[in-house]
Amino acid sequence: MRGRLFPEGRFMRFLSRANPYHSGPVSDHFDGRRFFNPDGHGPGGLGALLRWRFKHKRAQWPDHFPGLPTDRPPARVSGGAARLSFVGHASFLLQTGGLNILLDPLWSERCSPFDNVGPKRRNAPGIAFDDLPAIDVVCVSHSHYDHMDASTLKRLHARFSPRFLTPLGNDALIRGFCPSAKVEAHDWLARVPLNGDVALTFEPTHHWGARGVFDRSMTLWASFAFETPAGFIYYVGDSGFFGGANYRAARQRHGPAKLAVLPIGAYAPRFFMAPQHQDPDEAVRAARFLEAELSIGSHWGTFQLTDEPIDEPPARLSAALARWSVAPERFIAGRPGLAVSLPHAIDAPLPEPLAATPETTARAVHETGEEASD
């Protein structure tokens, strides 16, 4: 067993209704016990979960869905360049400013608290673990098992002893896996220098976190905005669209994105998933709100978390690109092994900035007519 539904050593604190991971002042997204999405939505309740499980049919995924040939990244990337390699699902290696940064790393065969039960990997990691360069920084966006993998974090700590950066409360979890790890936890909008050339800002995102059955939203979630020699790079591990508000705010704070990583999968059924997982149409609008020069679609095709067919996200992405006048060269459905570099010349026009209107901020509705319920 790789984890516990009752986090180790913390059961009595759950019974006392204390937050076992974080204590701090009340804020616009923390009520003293749980974090929340300001003016937004929390995770679905038991009734909605049962409706999903008993009234909706899950598509059958193939056992194998191969990615691209595995990438062999260089030792370092310096100067005015950046390189991003897709490991799979939400895992990426970002190389820039002489730093090697892993984002939501996951090399395990399952994203689950258990060794033999739970979503199973459908393709090999896009970088073999033994081909990783020396890792300086590991960023973990939130506590869900498909983003915070204890086994992988232990392997990384043992081999590289990197600096771990994560939102509030998640530091306690990582220290539980790796007691001697160098872990820092930060709140939304904290700006953290990584070296003289690269800095990271913890951006608000519309999601939630949990490791067990009683700790929902007791750890914070975030997206990552990187200031790099190659420009602004924006990474989203998981997020609902939330009318695009967080994307517009990030654009206002950091300027147009040179590169954006945006999830495009795990969105069905919409009534249950829409508040926390955007779909491809919403992801394209997110890219336009960010004025992203290049976007990579993630969070699809590796672990089956939801109901849509394995190959549906790129098909929906293609339709959304046509609908929102974005050239296909500017938004790629990522496959494990994909690597892109900045500067990156794209022979396609960059669309005009997207204004916030009732149409551009609306939740996506799929062909079934089933819109997400609030």
From TrEMBL:
Residues 88-277 form the Metallo-beta-lactamase domain. Residues 364-374 have a biased composition (Basic and acidic residues). Pfam families: Lactamase_B_2. This is L-ascorbate metabolism protein UlaG, beta-lactamase superfamily. One of its GO terms (cellular component) is cytoplasm. Residues 354-374 are annotated as: Disordered. It comes from the Bacteria.
